[in-house]
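User: quick one, fold this
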Amino acid sequence: MKDKVSVTALVIDDSPAARKLIAAQLQQVGCEIVAEAETAADGLSLFNELRPNLITIDLMMPKKGGMDSMALVEAIKQTAPEVAIIVVSSIPFEKMRTEFLDMGVLEYVIKPLNVYAMQKLRIKLMRAFPHLLQAR
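Assistant:
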């Protein structure tokens, strides 16, 4: 329905398969995928253009223009601290997880996004965006 407020999302991951999976999982909870990007630099450009409510960022991506995942989170949080960010990683780096959470990211999720990870993420998304409950 057009009268319901949607949560717009940008998926940033260098793997097309991972982007597709993440996008599908977010759509299941009621998010609208507005764009996808392969690099942090491309993601920042799309973020500045589209201003989505939610961004997923792969931790391990090739650098482009000197920008990595950490720099991307910093740039977004400086200009739009209210934006929800989910960092997605294939490796459970506890130190990195703590650093990102301290920077204000909503969640640090380990790939693959299995049922357990998505259930935990879904709860956080519902808290961050209560209107997702009404949209479902």
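User: anything notable?
Assistant: The CA atoms of residues 13 and 19 lie 6 Å apart.
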